[in-house]
Design a protein that fits this description.
By secondary structure, this protein is α/β, with parallel strands linked by helices. It contains 14 helices and 11 strands.
Length: 398
């Protein structure tokens, strides 16, 4: 039976979290996090391109490979990116020291991000930090060479992090339209990287009525296997169920949540958030994961959050990479949200009331209530197992 853990003690000494954006893609993602007002973390950008680095919004910027590249970039060569990072290993060590948790974010396929990100992650491991990689897989239109380099970079990074979250850029286009520009496509990718990092860090840094401490996060995120992180939103009477459904059927997911060994679930809502709603969210997830899975959840009541809405952040680890997310579920989400909305995990919802910067949250997405509800048969194998089980349970209760 799955272990459902409900932490109750508040965090007295918040963990120190550092986010390192490596290369152009990683630096762009960090800039977006800063622009969105993300709090509670320290930002660092690392690049071989001196001009790009100078425009970074991060207060701590590290130019690597000065002797090798003279500040002109890596030329798309991951070997140059790796050697550049190795040239500045001591400076990177000094910058990363003192962190409990390290995020390494990069766009895989380029020279600096692909080559230097594994070096940065390796330093994090040497310093005994909880190290999380959050990277993108290149768009198809970027060409076969860049995609090949990206895959190699992902595989080099995988053994050097405790958890690796890969965002497949092409999946973003499933819910885009013909008028989506290349600039907007890359902006969407940056936004997803930001949501992944903020979704995890908020669980640690935000004080809630049910708190999750750093030890809980470490226990979940050191599970072996593939990982996924997803965000869902819900409104109305079934808001929590809708939010969980959106999270587990996101078109960005390449791996199914079925069989996960560890799950971290965080629910945030306004002052009308009910305890049973939070418990229902955890129960829905528990029905889908491994019977022996470790499940932890937290709940945050934010008085500035839009009334009647909830946001669910789901992190699942210890996944079997061979168990792909059902294509029909991805198509269902894509079709339901294609017009007039934009991608469900990227598009911002209406702005909430003004609030203190420290309470900033992940940019809201298109409400799940836009998705049509439907009946689900227990033997419909094209529907994700989590939805079939919930439908059967709901029918039995009725």
């Amino acid at each position: 039976m799955s272990t459902l853990h409900i932490p109750s003690l508040a965090i007295d000494s918040p963990a120190t979290i550092k986010v390192v954006g490596v290369g152009g893609g990683g630096s762009n993602a960090v800039d977006r996090m800063i622009m969105e007002g993300m709090q509670g973390v320290e930002f660092i950008t690392v690049n071989t391109d001196a001009q790009a680095l100078a425009s970074s919004r991060a207060s701590h910027r590290i130019q690597i490979g000065t002797a090798l590249t003279r500040g002109l970039g890596s030329g798309g060569n991951p070997v140059i990116g790796q050697k550049s990072a190795e040239e500045n290993t001591e400076e990177l060590y000094q910058a990363l020291k003192g962190a409990d948790m390290l995020f390494v974010t990069a766009g895989m396929g380029g020279g600096t991000g692909t080559g230097a990100a594994p070096v940065v992650a390796g330093i994090g491991q040497d310093l005994k930090m909880l190290t999380v990689g959050v990277v993108t897989r290149p768009f198809n239109f970027e060409g076969s060479y860049r995609r090949k380099m990206g895959e190699q970079g992902i595989e080099q990074l995988r053994p050097l992090v405790d958890t690796l979250i890969v965002v497949p850029n092409d999946r973003l286009l499933q819910t885009a339209n013909r008028h989506t520009s290349m600039v907007e496509a890359f902006r969407m990718a940056d936004g997803v990287l930001r949501q992944a990092v903020q979704g995890i860090s908020d669980i640690i840094t935000q004080r809630g009525i049910i708190n999750v401490d750093f030890a809980d996060v470490r226990a979940i995120m050191t599970q072996q296997g593939s990982s996924l992180m997803s965000i869902g939103h819900g409104t109305g009477d079934n808001r929590v169920v809708d939010a969980v459904t959106e999270a587990v059927t996101s078109p960005l997911l390449e791996v199914s949540i079925d069989g996960a060994k560890g799950v971290l679930l965080n629910v945030i809502g306004s002052e009308d958030l009910g305890l049973l709603e939070v418990y229902d969210a955890a129960e829905i997830v528990a029905r889908s994961v491994d019977p022996e899975a470790q499940i932890m959840f937290g709940a945050v009541v934010d008085p500035h959050f839009p009334p009647g809405q909830v946001r669910v952040t789901l992190i699942a680890t210890g996944l079997d990479a061979s168990r792909t997310a059902p294509q029909r579920a991805r198509n269902f989400i894509s079709t339901a949200t294609r017009a007039p909305s934009v991608p469900s995990v990227v598009a911002p919802a209406p702005e909430p009331a003004p609030r203190a910067p420290a309470a900033e949250s992940v940019a809201a997405t298109a409400p799940v209530s836009l998705l049509p509800r439907r009946s689900v048969a227990a033997d419909d194998l094209d529907v994700p197992a989590i939805l079939r089980r919930h439908a059967v349970a709901a029918g039995a209760e009725a």
